[in-house]
Write a structure and sequence with these properties.
It catalyses: prephenate + H(+) = 3-phenylpyruvate + CO2 + H2O. It holds the Pfam family ACT. Keywords: Amino-acid biosynthesis, Aromatic amino acid biosynthesis, Lyase, Phenylalanine biosynthesis. The chain is of the alpha/beta class and 311 residues long. The chain contains eight helices and 15 strands. The longest helix has 15 residues. The protein is elongated and about 85 Å long. The chain starts with a strand and ends in a 6-residue tail after the last helix. 38% of the residues are buried. The mean pLDDT is 95. The structure holds prephenic acid. The site of prephenic acid has 15 residues, from helix 1, strand 3 and helix 5.
């Protein structure tokens, strides 16, 4: 096991790598690029790395399904950190290529919806094909397999390419969220601006099953930040839910919500509590849901059971 090795979605020059470098500890780790999210996470499961850094969601395209499916299945993993990175693409070409000469273009599938309108307006006849990552697309352009790739401008020098067009983004505020994933372990202390992630399988198929699950959060005043349904692979209609909520597992309202889910759902996978990258404190706190409120209520229950009930 290497405690100092982090794997990530490579090769060199991915947005994942750029986001990874914003983590202070990245400077003291051996950073190993791998060709897929699954390989990066398997290295952690197999003990060859202590962390894997992977994209999990994009504000335009939504879930990075490979990451979500990996977290929901196989040996359990946990999220320890998150990073948000604004995304804008450059069109990378071999030196001398002009826009009019571009017949084929490649990128990661999550990149394509972020540049769809630009592509339709500027390269309407070009054929787009998917690459394992944007940087891998750039590598394929350098090998002559495609005429152009959408990737970070910073990938251009790595692959001897030129950024023919810069700052391409259909949505100006496009952001990708990345997570540092490790084997299950102790969660970091609450910071006051935390997020808790989990995978939840629905209570048996009946009307209102999803509502019952959501009520565990609603009655405790917990704001959900993301809910993503993914097929379990066990037949049509079988879904699990990847949920991010505000707060830390050590907060009573979050802990009680998780216990509520555990009581009613066939399976709950805790994916970690970790600091929010945006540092925003939890929103929309309901009266009666602070730790002090929960403690006062359970003290009162004890007094009732002891025959010392008060008003
Ligand atoms: O291919 C890359 O450069 C990546 O880091 C992957 C990835 C992703 O999967 O979300 C990262 C950010 C962009 O939104 C598109 C692709």
């Amino acid at each position: 096991m290497s405690a100092t090795r982090y794997t990530y979605l490579g090769p060199a020059g991915t947005f994942t790598e750029a986001a990874l470098h914003t983590l202070p500890e990245a400077a003291t780790r051996e950073l190993v690029p791998l060709s897929s999210v699954a390989l990066a996470l398997d290295a952690v499961r197999g003990g060859e790395a202590s962390g894997a850094f992977v994209p999990i969601e994009n504000s335009v395209e939504g879930a990075v399904t490979a990451t979500n499916d990996e977290l929901a299945s196989g040996a359990p993993l946990m999220i320890y950190r998150e990073v948000l990175l604004p995304i804008a693409f450059a069109l990378l070409v071999r030196p001398g290529t002009e826009l009019a000469g571009i017949k084929t273009v490649t990128s990661h599938p999550v990149a394509q919806p972020q540049v769809r309108r630009w592509l339709a307006a500027n390269l309407p006849d070009a054929v787009w094909e998917s690459a394992a990552s944007n940087a891998d697309g750039a590598r394929l352009v350098s090998e002559g397999r495609y005429d152009a790739a959408f990737a970070g401008e910073f990938a251009a020098p790595i692959y001897g390419l030129d950024p023919l067009v810069k700052d391409i983004a259909d949505a100006r505020s496009a952001t990708t969220r990345f997570v540092l994933v490790g084997r299950p372990g102790r969660i970091s202390s609450a910071t006051g601006a935390d997020k808790t992630s989990m995978v939840v399988w629905l209570p048996d198929d009946h009307p209102g099953a999803l509502l019952e699950l959501l009520q565990e959060f609603a009655v405790r005043g917990i704001n959900l930040m993301r809910i993503e349904s993914r097929p379990t692979g066990e037949g049509l209609g079988n879904y699990c839910f990847l949920i991010d909520c505000e707060g830390h597992l050590s907060e009573r309202r979050v802990g009680e919500a998780m216990m509520g889910l555990k009581r009613i759902c066939p399976q709950v996978r805790f994916l970690g509590s970790y600091p929010r990258a945006d540092r925003q404190p939890s929103t929309g706190r309901r009266p009666g849901t602070s730790d002090a409120d929960f403690t006062a209520a359970s003290d009162w229950l004890s007094r009732c059971l002891d025959g010392r009930a008060d008003a």
